[in-house]
Every structure is written in C-alpha cells, then in structure tokens.
C-alpha cells in the first residue's frame, strides 16, 4: 500500500525538480581511516559494472594499500593542486567536470575549503553546483566535520577541529551511510602503517575514537529518525514507531519542578530520547510572585538540558488528563514523567485522580512516577552537578576469584560480532573479507558455518578460506546439518567464522543454540568472528514486533554483545537494501515481492536501522564507561539503582522482563523479577519455569510468591520491593496498579502501557 497515497501539488513539483538534479550520497565515519573512501570507490566500480558513467576527482587515498587497490580502472578527472601551510590540497576542477559531464562523480572531503581564487569557497558549494547540472555526487565526511557535532566533539575530546559543513548538510543528501569501525580496527590499521598521512595523533587515542564513533552513530540515528517520522506521517501511521524514545515531563511552577525535569533529563539521556517539558497554567490569571520566580528558574533549566518547553492551558482539574494525553499523542511521546499523587483517598474520590485519568486514556504510552522523597529528605533542588564515582584504588590486591576471572579472559579467544538491521546488509560479506585479510597475514582462519543464501557476491568472498564440513544429525528420520563444533575444537584454528548466531540447533545437538557453541569455541582459546541481526537481540523482541508486526522466535541474550571484544555495525540505507532485494541479491526472485510487502517494507527497514544505530551507540557508551571515561554522551547516572519487576499475570511476563532488563542495563542496576500470583491450571508450572529461565538468561534475580487472593498482591509486592531497597518498580497497567501506587510513593514507578494490535507499525489510522 506504500505507493498509493495521493501526492500534494507541492510534492509533485518537488519530484519534477528532482528529475533535473543529481543525487547526493554521503559516507560518514568517526575519523579518517574508517573506510569511507574504500567503500565509496567500491561503489563506484559497482556502478561502472552496471553501465553508469563514473569518474573520480580530488580523491585522497593517502597511499593506503586497500584504498589504492580500489582505484582500479576508474577514470580520473585531474583536480587542481595547491599548497596550504606546506600541505598539498586538491580542489575540484569544475570546468573539466562540466565538459566531461559524467553521470556520477566520486569526491573525498566534503568539508574541504577551496583556494581563495576558486569559483566557490567550499567543496560543498562545488557539489551543489554539480548537482544543479544533473551530475550525481558520492562524497565522504568525518563526524567532527559536521557543524552540529563539532562543538560536542571538541568538548568531549579536547581537540580543536578543522573546517566544517553546515548542520543541514545531511538533509541535502538523498542517502547517508555510516561506515562503522571499532577503535580496535582503527588502531590495528594505524599500527600496520595503513593510515599514513594522518597528522591528528590525538584523535587516535582509544577513548577519543570511542567518543567520535558514538557521536557518529547517534547523529546518523537522529537523521534516520527524521526520515522515519516523515515516512510514517506520509503513510498516515499513528503513534511512536517503537525505534526511539520521547520523554514528556509534566510539572508545575513549584519547588519540586526541577527534580522532575532533572529526572526526565537523566531518563532521556540514558534511553537516547528527546525531552519535552510542559506545565499547565490558567492564562487568564497572573502568576503569583513565587510561581513567577519558579517559572524563570524552570525556563533556565529547560534551556540548559536542551529540552523543548511549552505551557498548556489549564481550564479545570478534570481536564488535565485529556490535555496531557492529547499533547503526548500528537508529539509521539513514549513515556510520560510526573510526580506521585499527594491527594488523600477522599480528595481523590471528590476531585478525581490525574494519574488514574491518564492511565485510562493512554494505550501505548508508559507512565513514570517520580518518587516523593520530600517527607524523608525535605524540600530541595536536585544539584546541577552530578558526582561521578571515584576510581578504585589501583594498588588493591586482587582476590583469588578476580585473578581466576582475569586468567580465564586472557586464555579465551577474541570475539568480534558484525551486526546489521536486516538480512542482506552485508554482514557475511564483510566477515569473509576480514577472514581473507587475516589469512593473507598468515593467520589460520577457517569457516565454521556459512550461510550464503545463494548470494553470488558473498560466495565470491570465500576466496582461499577453508570451509569445514558440517556435522550430520538425524532428526525424525531426516538428515540435517549443523556446525561441527567438535571438529573445530579438534582442529583448533586461530580464527573461525560463524554465521547467524541466533540459529537454533537441531534437537539432539550438544547445545540448543549456536551462540552456545560459539561460547564453547571461545573458551577453548579459539577466536570467533560472527554475524547477527539486531532483531534477534532478546530485549528488543517487543520493539521489533511493534515495528514489523512479526514476533522473532530465534533470539540471543543481550549479554552476547557485552561478551564480544568488538561489535561493528554494517549500515545500509533502506532504499539501497530494497534495490538489492529487487535485483535478487538477497533472496530468490520468487520471494522478492513477498519480502518487500512484509518485513522489507520501507517503514520497517528505516525503524530497524534506527534501532541498530542506537543499540550499537549504547554498546559503545557502555565500553567508554567501563574505561572510567567521564565524557560519556549519555552522562553519569545519579545513584545506585535497584529495579523490581512485578508480574501478576503470566501473559504479560516476557514483555515486562525484557523492559526491566533494558532499563536495568542502562542504569547499571541490579534487578529482580517477582511473580506474585495464585497457582494456575494445566501447564502453569512450565510457564513459570520459562519466566524464570528468561529472567536468569538476561541476568536478573527471580522469586515467586503464591497468594490466595489477588487483593493481597499490592501489599505483598510493596513489602517485597521495600525490603530489597528498590528505587524503581515496574508494573503492568491494570486494576492492581491503582492500589499499589499509594503504597509505593517513596519509589519511582514505571507503569508499562498495554500492547494492542492497532499499535503495530503496519496499521494505519482509521
């Protein structure tokens, strides 16, 4: 249904104007040496093989062997050379390019500044000129060369950055592709002498590489989010996409307003979400002197934390829930942050409850209630400067357990994971290419398990790599094949390549899942390079179903990414992926139309791409924090957290557990899952066992408390959570919640929204 919506006259005019304008594609990376030029040149060869007229101009290989090799037989239009501060510079030769009039020009250095006498002051202006003459351009840029990122990059690294391009540059592009490279990959290239010509030595410190990588991931994720929202609006989809968080704080001009805003800011940072703040006021009445003072303070704070602020009209108390929910829906809010109710039971009966009114009206918006600690701690303003944890004493003697753990880590093989947003992005292709590179360096590399799906480009990348024979297993009279883990352990190669980590093994295999085989291989001291798609991460299962309408059955625990020494994203734009699909490069041609109309729909691919970008950005941030670096983009968390998940109905369990895990992981919190219910009928024990196993797999603690009457649940749970020192509880939105809230107002409470069929991204507004 994606192509049938009628276009407006403006859209028609824009489409016509684009017919006479070249296309712009930008490769973006964290630093020089990420592989942007390499991939740009490789794409140039692919276009040339398709009969498209491609030339290169002002391309800088910096004599890197892999990049020089990619130049091949691409036609070069000579650039204009000049010297600045003793360094040779290259400007585009616009006259020569116009005379040659190719279909596509490949050019490096989008942020380059031209010589004084040039026709235009910058390369970006040159590129706009070429685009206006119907010449398409593919170019490269580093994240710190974008104006919107430059200041933050300087703040986080302390390095003075060079020339930049305006903030709206990425919006000019028809396609933006991130070339992700881990700090380890960059440092290996540097050590091997493949990054000649780089003079910014400070950039190549591990911490700075991590910060710039995370900045690039988040910047492209924001760009993808903009395109996703535009697509969903065009298609008439309702509500949030499921790929990103948007936090709404509602507060009043009161002493505790800053606490709610600060809490909202911390939640937004840890969840990588946008932050909105609203207050409700009666515009026909002037503010009191005290309220006016709090308003000025609030405005300064909101500006400082980078939130969007709005005052909404307050007509009567009973209208507050409708006003807030309408605002939340129109702004695609995923979480509403507010304070606990301070009303007595009788006031609630007489005046109505704002919280209950909101819960009645929200379907896919979580409600987060900030703990009321004023009775214990007094009225206060949360400090603007958050204390970071001190470094542990460096000379402390390690315990026997700590020594044993470090020895195991030293003996263990190295683990690298390539992750993508969907099948066909190029994970296996890149894994095989890296395997061949290692083979050329004299490292013993073998293919443990390869799934080519008949893709010619992937098969061609096998090269000289040895493919190990698969083990044959009989199951229900049928002979099936699996990775031969025993053979790998016997042969002991230095590195083994393993496709599709989330695969479930044939019943009767030693391990149920392929990732468990991989862990055995790593324990034997053999390094592994593997692939997985983002939709297979256990904690993202609900988000993926909301995005695609499809429940992914094969999953891996999120700890697999944390176990990996390196996690690298293979990023491809949805349009490019769909083109590969139509060309039969992903699935057989008979399956193409079905795939394009289901999982590979544009909206799905954009949302999954954003999900993947944000997930790897979080992984980078976690690794930066483990290095005790203070310049984490998400900022420090304010205190030690203990998360308590309350499950009263078995059907809700999996979703609440996954939500509890993701929150606890981001807050670096210990977390518990407590099932409080009466024993059920047939199969109940098996379901309870499955809940416990999921909790343990994700690293939580599990408990079960039997009750004879549901009325006991709020009291029992509140007592359990208090004894455990819980700072935040997570509950499902149901009748029990109302009775629990008065008992838990000293804790933060996250009330998880219901999950209804109409929320799935593929359904339109009716």
TrEMBL record:
InterPro entries, sorted: AAA+_ATPase, Histidine_kinase_KdpD, P-loop_NTPase, Rossmann-like_a/b/a_fold, Sig_transdc_His_kinase_KdpD_N
Domain of life according to the entry: Bacteria
Every AAA+ ATPase domain range: 22-165, 413-574
Keyword match Repeat: no
Gene Ontology molecular functions: kinase activity
Keyword list, A-Z: Kinase, Transferase, Two-component regulatory system
Presence of keyword Cell membrane: no
Protein's UniProt name: Histidine kinase
Organism: Paenibacillus alba
């Amino acid at each position: 249904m994606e192509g049938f919506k009628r276009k407006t006259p403006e859209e028609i005019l824009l489409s016509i104007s684009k017919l006479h304008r070249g296309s712009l594609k930008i490769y973006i990376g964290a630093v020089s040496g990420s592989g942007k030029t390499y991939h740009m040149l490789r794409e140039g060869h692919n276009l040339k093989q398709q009969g498209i007229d491609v030339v290169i101009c002002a391309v800088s290989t910096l004599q890197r062997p892999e990049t020089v090799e990619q130049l091949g037989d691409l036609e070069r239009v000579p650039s204009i050379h000049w010297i600045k501060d003793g360094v040779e510079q290259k400007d585009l030769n616009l006259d020569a390019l116009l005379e040659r009039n190719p279909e596509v020009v490949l050019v490096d250095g989008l942020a380059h500044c031209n010589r004084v006498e040039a026709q235009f002051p910058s390369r970006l202006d040159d590129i706009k000129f070429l685009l206006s003459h119907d010449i398409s351009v593919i170019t490269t840029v580093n994240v710190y060369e974008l104006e919107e990122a430059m200041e933050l990059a300087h703040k986080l690294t302390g390095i003075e950055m060079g020339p930049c391009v305006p903030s709206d540059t990425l919006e000019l592009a028809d396609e933006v592709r991130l070339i992700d490279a881990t700090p380890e990959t960059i440092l290996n290239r540097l050590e091997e002498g493949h990054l000649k010509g780089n003079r910014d030595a400070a950039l190549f410190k591990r911490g700075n590489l991590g910060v710039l990588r995370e900045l690039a991931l988040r910047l492209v994720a924001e760009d993808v989010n903009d395109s996703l929202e535009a697509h969903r609006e065009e298609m008439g989809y309702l509500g949030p996409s499921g790929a990103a968080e948007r936090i709404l704080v509602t507060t009043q001009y009161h002493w505790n307003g800053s606490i709610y805003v600060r809490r909202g800011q911390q939640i937004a940072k840890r969840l990588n979400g946008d932050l909105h703040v609203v207050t409700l006021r009666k515009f026909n009445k002037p503010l009191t002197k005290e309220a006016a003072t709090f308003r000025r303070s609030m405005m300064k704070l909101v500006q400082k934390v980078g939130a969007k602020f709005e005052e909404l009209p307050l007509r009567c108390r009973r209208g507050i829930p409708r006003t807030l929910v309408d605002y939340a829906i129109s702004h695609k809010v995923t979480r509403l942050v507010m304070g606990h109710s301070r009303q007595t039971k009788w006031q609630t009966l007489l005046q109505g409850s704002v919280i209950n009114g909101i819960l009645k009206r929200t379907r896919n918006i979580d409600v987060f209630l900030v703990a009321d600690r004023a009775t214990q701690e007094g009225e206060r303003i949360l400090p603007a400067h958050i204390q970071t944890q001190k470094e542990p004493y460096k000379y402390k003697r390690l315990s026997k357990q700590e020594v044993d753990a470090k020895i195991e880590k030293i003996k263990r093989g190295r683990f690298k994971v390539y992750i993508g947003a969907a099948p066909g992005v190029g994970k296996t292709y890149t894994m095989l290419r890296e395997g061949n590179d290692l083979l050329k360096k004299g490292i013993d590399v073998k293919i443990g398990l390869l799934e080519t799906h008949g893709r010619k480009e992937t098969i061609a990348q096998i090269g000289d790599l040895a493919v190990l024979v698969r083990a044959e297993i009989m199951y229900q009279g049928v002979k099936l094949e699996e990775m031969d883990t025993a053979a790998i352990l016997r042969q002991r190669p230095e590195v083994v390549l393993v496709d599709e980590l989330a695969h479930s093994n044939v019943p009767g295999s030693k391990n149920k899942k392929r990732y468990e085989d991989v862990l055995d291989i790593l324990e034997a001291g053999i390094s592994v390079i593997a692939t997985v798609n983002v939709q297979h991460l256990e904690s993202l299962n609900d988000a993926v179903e909301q995005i695609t309408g499809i429940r992914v059955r094969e999953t891996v625990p999120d700890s697999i990414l944390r176990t990996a020494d390196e996690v690298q994203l293979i990023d491809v734009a949805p349009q490019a992926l769909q083109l590969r699909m139509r060309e039969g490069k992903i699935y057989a041609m008979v399956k193409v139309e079905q795939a394009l109309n289901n999982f590979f729909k544009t909206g799905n691919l954009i949302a999954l791409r954003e999900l993947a970008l944000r997930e790897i950005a979080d992984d980078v941030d976690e690794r930066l924090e483990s290095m005790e670096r203070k310049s984490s983009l998400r900022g420090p968390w304010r205190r030690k957290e203990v998360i308590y998940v309350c499950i009263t109905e078995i059907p809700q369990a999996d979703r609440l557990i996954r939500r509890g895990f993701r929150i606890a992981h981001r807050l670096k919190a210990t977390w518990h899952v407590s099932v409080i219910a009466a024993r059920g009928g047939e199969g109940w024990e098996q379901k309870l066992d499955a809940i416990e196993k999921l909790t343990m797999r994700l690293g939580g603690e599990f408990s079960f408390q039997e009750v004879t009457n549901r009325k006991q649940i709020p009291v029992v749970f509140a007592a359990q959570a208090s004894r455990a020192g819980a700072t935040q509880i997570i509950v499902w939105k149901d009748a029990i919640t109302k009775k629990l809230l008065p008992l838990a107002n000293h804790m933060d409470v996250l009330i998880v929204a219901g999950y209804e069929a109409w929320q799935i991204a593929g359904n339109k507004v009716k």
